[in-house]
Amino acid sequence: MYDPHSVSRDDQIFGMLCHLLAFSTFIIPFGSIIGPLVIWLIKKDQSPYINEQGKESLNFQISIMIYCIISSILIIVFIGVLLLIAVGIAWFILVILASIKANEGIVYRYPITIRFIK
């Protein structure tokens, strides 16, 4: 783990951006993946903290996309609507929580995340 005092302020800001840019999906299609991917690709070699936060954000956003696709398919049996609402609320809350933690220099691990990028 990282000591919050050992992570530079710039690293904290870019780590936070890795999470916050997921909200760009409201403006750009697939922005929840593109935004964190851009920050991670640019900064991953400059800081282990940003590398860790970028991978975590990308893994979570990809996982959420998969959960949304599954929920959309399950709309046929009516449970999908409830699942989509639950996934959307969880996504919103967890992205905000991760952004706050990253801004404090704390490594945040999302629950319910499939680790595609290691």
TrEMBL record:
Keywords: Membrane, Transmembrane, Transmembrane helix. Pfam families: MamF_MmsF. This is DUF4870 domain-containing protein. The chain crosses the membrane at residues 20-43, 64-97. It comes from the Bacteria. The lineage of its organism: Bacteria, Bacillati, Bacillota, Bacilli, Bacillales. InterPro entries: MamF_MmsF (IPR019109). It is found in: Membrane. It is a multi-pass membrane protein.
